[in-house]
Amino acid sequence: MYNLQIKSPDGPRAGVLKTPHGDITTPIFMPVGTQATVKALSPEELAAVGAQIILGNTYHLYLRPGVDVIDRFGGLHGFMHWQGPVLTDSGGFQIFSLAALSKLTEEGYAFQSHLDGGARHLLTPEDAVEVQMALNSDIMMCLDQCIAYPAEHALAARASDLTTRWAHRCKQRWQAARECPNSLFGIVQGGMFKDLRTRSAEEIVSVGFPGYAIGGLSVGEPKTLMLEIAAHTLALLPVDAPRYVMGVGTPADLIEMIALGADMFDCVMPTRNARNGQLFTANGTLNIVNARYRDDPAPIEPGCTCYACRHYSRAYVRHLYAAREILAHRLTTIHNLHFYLKLVKDARMAILEGNFERFRREFHGREAGADIE
């Protein structure tokens, strides 16, 4: 399933992840398409910016349009006209973020829809797998319990233990579907405590999955602590399996996580920030609403080959944003996703060529000297 071309127990890796809907070269960033769409872009535009795999969400799709609707199309690929691989989150993080509407038990999550607050639903570990199989996700995630930061050791321990018990149940349901060609990843939890991360990693790895994710990061903790916990946990995961750090992050986060041996990432930042007018470039972030760009003829990022930069000026994009035109969101999203996907592509090339540390230093050097707001 995962062919590592360059592997290291404690350094950057480059590999090829095989899925039913195509191969994925790693390291890779996955654009977030929570509601079976990456906001503002068509599947053809996603392919054009270099997306290899996108992320959907079990919780949201379960509520709307409903699994029965998507199942009639053979899963998400047919429903949303995306022919590449899809990874789906189990929904645990979304229910965690809507804690006022949910209740956690050993059986699963009992929750009210955030859409109408109406009938209660129950999402068990088995349900999470069944829904994802109906969505035909190439990579499915176990249901887990995510906790906020800060959290006491006892709470983090209980959440980690429950995540392990649910992982066993998820795997049993996945294995019961003998003809299911899709992969199931286990999730390591444990809060910001190294002893709990160690225990969780050992337990989840002992259950045995084709790939492993690190959950519970980027939930408000300091950056230094996030990197410290990520480094500790990544070192505990099998070398020959894909390693997915969930919900991360900034371009600098990606570079540092790649340096630590992570393979896969997702984050709403490039798309959400695009809609708020913040654009990522090799020389730092650019706020397109800034008055300095009112008559600027330059592209968003000189030298960038994305569709937006090849055809439009900063002045025009700023005008669209000020006029609240939908095209502003489309062009800024195209640029930001192109930037993220090119960043991980360039990181992969640097790894294969043995130049990653130089690539990393040059990236941070440009970032430190950036002042283009």
Structural notes for this entry:
The protein has helices at residues 43-48, 58-63, 67-72, 76-80, 92-97, 125-135, 153-176, 194-207, 223-234, 251-260, 269-275, 307-311, 314-322, 326-353, 356-368, and strands spanning 2-6, 14-19, 22-26, 28-30, 54-57, 86-89, 102-104, 109-112, 120-123, 139-141, 183-188, 211-214, 243-245, 264-266, 278-281, 284-287. By secondary structure, the chain is of the alpha/beta class. It folds into two domains: 2-267, Queuine tRNA-ribosyltransferase-like (TIM Barrel, Alpha-Beta Barrel); 275-368, no CATH class. α7 (153-176) runs parallel beside α8. The longest helix is centred in the last third of the chain and has 28 residues, at 326-353. It is globular.
List the helices and strands and how they pair.
Blueprint: E1 2-6, E2 14-19, E3 22-26, E4 28-30, H1 43-48, E5 54-57, H2 58-63, H3 67-72, H4 76-80, E6 86-89, H5 92-97, E7 102-104, E8 109-112, E9 120-123, H6 125-135, E10 139-141, H7 153-176, E11 183-188, H8 194-207, E12 211-214, H9 223-234, E13 243-245, H10 251-260, E14 264-266, H11 269-275, E15 278-281, E16 284-287, H12 307-311, H13 314-322, H14 326-353, H15 356-368
Parallel strand pairs: 4-14, 5-6, 6-10, 10-11, 11-12, 12-13, 13-14
Antiparallel strand pairs: 1-2, 2-3, 7-8, 8-9, 15-16
